């Protein structure tokens, strides 16, 4: 099996490659065909997926069996002022991959986000619930999902949220750095969701590869919390003496409207390959223990 990973230098792409090299994740073994596959990791330096001609040429040379698309324009605030760039990367890029994967008969795993929902509910969202993004980032990611559905017949769209991993920038590293530098920090307490360890997400993506359980999935850590709860738990587990104070989204003053409630229900996972995502607190504890080693 030949697996092509786009956005391979990001925290999720890096995690996927590391798990394949180790032939197992923190959650357990991965399928033998995946563990013994040929993996090609690329980023913008090797291929601009927003260019259809280049994408077709590159994939035709490699002829992958599976493409895992981790490439995205994820700077949520920057998306508001760079809508064309956001649409090119988050929508046209996945469209191009879907078109060429269909031509090659390859499977496509496309990583999406909780931002495709409005965030106005109070009950964990299932895959069939109505979307309604309120930000440019969410709207462009939803457009990418629609293109994948339109142009690919062998797709897995996997929505995740509040992702952190060993490589790159994320909320956990930011909180730990701020906690060491400051006596207290203010963190919003009116947005709720599911912290997700990239190790857990990568494990499930790799277990989907062998199957034909095509469709749209939610894949987030078990349990929900606010960003304030998340930050408090980070300080506690890393034993950093920094007070975390709750504040409102309005006080935080962001140019982007973020979902107030975007907790996801991993229903599709439960009913197909199984939902083995760890509780968010347990996964965070292991993560902090590992980085402190």
UniProtKB/TrEMBL annotation:
Q: What class of enzyme is it?
A: oxidoreductase
Q: Which EC numbers characterise this protein's activity in its record?
A: 1.1.1.133
Instruction: Specify whether Oxidoreductase is a keyword of the entry.
Output: yes
* Pathway stated in the Swiss-Prot or TrEMBL entry: Carbohydrate biosynthesis; dTDP-L-rhamnose biosynthesis
Q: Name the PANTHER family on file.
A: DTDP-4-DEHYDRORHAMNOSE REDUCTASE, METHIONINE ADENOSYLTRANSFERASE 2 SUBUNIT BETA
What this protein is reported to do is described as: Catalyzes the reduction of dTDP-6-deoxy-L-lyxo-4-hexulose to yield dTDP-L-rhamnose.
**Protein name listed in UniProt:** dTDP-4-dehydrorhamnose reductase
This protein's species is Clostridium zeae
């Amino acid at each position: 099996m030949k697996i092509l990973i786009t956005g391979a230098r990001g925290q999720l792409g890096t995690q996927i490659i590391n798990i394949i090299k180790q032939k197992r994740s923190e959650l357990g073994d991965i399928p033998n065909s995946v563990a013994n596959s040929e993996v090609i990791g690329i980023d913008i330096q090797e291929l601009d997926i927003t260019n259809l001609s280049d994408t077709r040429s590159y994939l035709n040379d490699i002829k992958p069996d599976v493409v895992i698309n981790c490439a995205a324009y994820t700077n949520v605030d920057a998306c508001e002022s760079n809508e064309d760039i956001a649409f090119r990367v988050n929508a046209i890029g996945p469209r191009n991959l879907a078109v060429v994967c269909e031509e090659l008969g390859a499977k496509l795993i496309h990583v999406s986000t909780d931002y495709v929902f409005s965030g106005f509910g109070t009950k964990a969202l299932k895959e069939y619930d109505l979307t309604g993004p309120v930000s440019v980032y969410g709207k462009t990611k939803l457009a990418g999902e629609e293109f994948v559905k339109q142009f690919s017949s062998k797709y897995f769209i996997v929505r995740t949220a509040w992702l952190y991993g060993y490589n790159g920038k994320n909320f956990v590293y930011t909180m730990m750095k701020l906690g060491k530098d400051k006596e207290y920090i203010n963190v919003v307490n009116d947005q709720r969701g599911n912290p997700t360890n990239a190790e857990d997400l990568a494990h499930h993506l790799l277990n989907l590869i062998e199957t034909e359980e095509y469709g749209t999935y939610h894949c987030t850590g078990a349990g929900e919390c606010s960003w304030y709860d998340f930050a408090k738990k980070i300080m506690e587990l890393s034993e950093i003496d920094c007070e975390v104070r709750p504040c409102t989204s309005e006080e935080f003053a962001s140019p982007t409207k973020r979902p107030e409630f975007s907790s996801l229900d991993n229903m599709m996972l439960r009913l197909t390959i199984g939902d083995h995502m760890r509780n968010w607190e347990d996964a965070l504890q292991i993560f902090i223990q590992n980085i402190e080693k």
